[in-house]
Design a protein that fits this description.
With 351 residues, the protein is an alpha+beta fold. Helix content is 27%, strand content 25%.
Length: 351
């Protein structure tokens, strides 16, 4: 294992923000990951797991403890079954499944980060979520002190949530297993209207896998959601806020606020989210509350391509970013009575 002290963490995140870690360990095998975790737990040392750094906001003071960077590699594809090491680059893994003619994650192309992070967040976009294809997650259970295999049901997946996110101090993901679909080179049925429109088909239709992947990559790039070191709109964590899910009563109150603010004919986005609940759009809320693309005058601003992304324009601090996030949260709450919730994990930082 590689070990560094007083190690910068900002270069390991897509925000490029945050102070150093007291100690940074890079593990390239599952055994090294487990050893590092056991050592930290035995010593009572705070532990921060770092994968691709695409969903991480680290405070300016950094992390006082051991940061464990998981850099394991391994991609095994047998028939329609896929197993990925936690450190595998997710975008590369998606490309491999498309090349193999297998459907199920093609609309998750371009999402930065590592494979091990996908079950934690139940990563999803453009009508797909990893929870629909994950069969098992192999993880180190810090409480039991052993490696365990959790079935899909045991992962307790929900919208951008899982058992791993609910209990972040317990599990360290080592490997993720997926069951994909052989649909003769076609995608899974398209569920997202924007994707279907871009492809000139109807929701529910299938298209060639490569076309689905390329279309999603173009849509994401147009919103600054594909990493590009030269484009500060991509110096972000992608969507900074989750889409609010409201009870029927809360949605009715929200709807009334929308019409009061925007006029009687105004209709907010509304999507079914289970019995008695409706999901609305965080991006719509942010825009209609007055925080448009490019909003801000400091080193942290809303993306010029997408209102849901908060960005580092090159010289920001984490506190600059948090100040902007707090301003957006307060503005949306004042305008519509809805409180936005951050999607990235906060370390030594908070709203």
């Amino acid at each position: 294992m590689q070990e560094l002290h007083d190690a910068p963490l900002a270069p390991l995140t897509t925000f490029r923000l945050g102070g150093p870690a007291t100690r940074l360990v890079t593990a390239t095998t599952d055994a090294e990951v487990i050893t590092a975790v056991r050592e930290a737990d035995a010593d009572g040392t705070p532990l921060l797991i770092v994968g691709g750094g695409s969903n991480l906001v680290i405070g300016d003071k950094g992390f006082e403890g051991t940061a464990l960077r998981i850099a394991t590699r391994g991609c095994e594809l047998v028939g329609t079954r896929l197993e990925l090491a936690a450190g595998e680059i997710w975008t590369d893994a998606v490309a491999r499944t498309v090349e193999a003619g297998l459907a199920g994650v093609e609309c998750l192309a371009g999402i930065p980060g590592s494979a091990g992070a996908t079950p934690i967040q139940n990563v999803g976009a453009y009508g797909q979520e990893v929870s629909t294809t994950i069969t098992e997650v192999i993880a180190y259970d810090r409480r039991a002190g052993e490696t365990v295999t959790l079935t899909n049901g045991e992962c307790a997946f929900s919208y951008r949530h899982s058992r791993f996110k609910a209990d972040p101090e317990r599990y360290v993901v080592l490997r993720v297993r997926f069951a994909l679909e052989d649909a003769d080179g076609l995608s899974a049925p398209l569920k997202y209207a924007e994707t279907a429109r871009a492809l000139g088909v109807e929701p529910g239709d299938r298209v060639p896998l490569a076309e689905a992947r390329e279309t999603v990559l173009k849509l994401r790039a147009g919103k600054g959601m594909v990493l590009d070191p030269e484009d500060h709109d991509t110096w972000s964590a992608g969507s900074f806020f989750t889409n609010p899910i409201l009870t029927d009563a809360d949605f009715a109150a929200f709807h009334a606020r929308v019409r009061e603010r925007l006029g009687d004919g105004a209709e907010p986005p509304a999507y079914p989210a289970g019995e008695g609940h409706t999901k609305t759009s965080a991006a719509w809320l942010i825009d209609k509350a007055g925080f448009t693309k490019g909003y801000g005058s400091g080193p942290a601003r809303i993306s010029t391509k997408h209102t849901l992304a908060l960005t580092n324009r090159g010289a920001a601090t984490t506190e600059d970013l948090l100040a902007l996030a707090r301003e957006v949260v307060a503005g949306v709450r004042e305008a519509f009575g809805v409180t936005l919730v951050n999607e990235p994990v906060m370390v030594g930082a908070g709203l």
